[in-house]
């Protein structure tokens, strides 16, 4: 019987090669982490990311159950599929973590972010800023003779688009809350 020859550069696809194949593609994932509302819990969660060199693109935290003393941490992060699996597993091992949900893979979800934008301008720039705010359904929450503060809620992409349009009109300052997210449909 002759030995099996494989061309240089090709890969073997054998039934005996049971290793999972992972992509090197970097993906964006939204994780919802239910934790004890205790001192130091957020620091441990953030420390996990910092200690392993994982990036956090967005982070929001708030108490969601006063009687049960639980908070929800919503984290938007990026990584290869293998890195995302590691992040979820390591989060699940933290004692004060009750549940880790990857909203990106669990089905459709709703993501929203709040942004505050201070825009300074006079004349036509001021009129244009108000017109664009109306198109984006942004609210004026403060107004002076020289500036506006707009409040806008939407997807991170909508917030980015609004910022891009306000820059040439005198955008001075931006504050963003980070992503809050929930899965769609019944639990």
Automatic annotation (TrEMBL):
Residue span(s) of domain ACT: 30-105
Broad EC category: transferase
Function in brief: Catalyzes the conversion of 2 pyruvate molecules into acetolactate in the first common step of the biosynthetic pathway of the branched-amino acids such as leucine, isoleucine, and valine.
Pathway(s) it belongs to: Amino-acid biosynthesis; L-isoleucine biosynthesis; L-isoleucine from 2-oxobutanoate: step 1/4; Amino-acid biosynthesis; L-valine biosynthesis; L-valine from pyruvate: step 1/4
CDD domains: ACT_AHAS
EC numbers, comma separated: 2.2.1.6
Domain of life: Bacteria
Protein name, UniProt field: Acetolactate synthase small subunit
GO biological process, one term: isoleucine biosynthetic process
Oligomer status and interactors: Dimer of large and small chains.
Gene3D superfamilies: 3.30.70.260, ACT-like. Chain A, domain 2 (3.30.70.1150)
Reactions catalysed: 2 pyruvate + H(+) = (2S)-2-acetolactate + CO2
Keywords carried by this UniProt record: Amino-acid biosynthesis, Branched-chain amino acid biosynthesis, Transferase
């Amino acid at each position: 019987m002759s030995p099996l020859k494989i061309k240089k550069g090709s890969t073997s696809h054998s039934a005996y090669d049971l290793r999972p194949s992972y992509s090197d593609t970097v993906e964006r994932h939204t994780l919802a982490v239910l934790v004890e509302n205790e001192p130091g819990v957020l620091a441990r969660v953030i420390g996990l990311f910092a200690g392993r060199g994982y990036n956090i693109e967005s982070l929001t935290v708030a108490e969601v159950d006063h009687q049960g003393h639980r908070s929800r941490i919503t984290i938007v992060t990026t990584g290869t599929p293998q890195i995302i699996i590691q992040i979820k597993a390591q989060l699940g091992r933290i004692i004060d973590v009750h549940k880790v949900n990857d909203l990106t893979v669990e089905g459709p979800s709703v993501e929203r972010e709040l942004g505050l934008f201070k825009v300074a301008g006079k004349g036509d720039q001021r009129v244009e800023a108000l017109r664009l705010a109306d198109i984006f359904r942004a609210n004026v929450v403060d107004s002076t003779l020289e500036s506006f503060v707009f409040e806008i809620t939407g997807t991170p992409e909508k917030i980015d688009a609004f910022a891009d349009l306000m820059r040439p009109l005198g955008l001075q300052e931006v504050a963003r809350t980070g992503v809050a997210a929930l899965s769609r449909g019944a639990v």
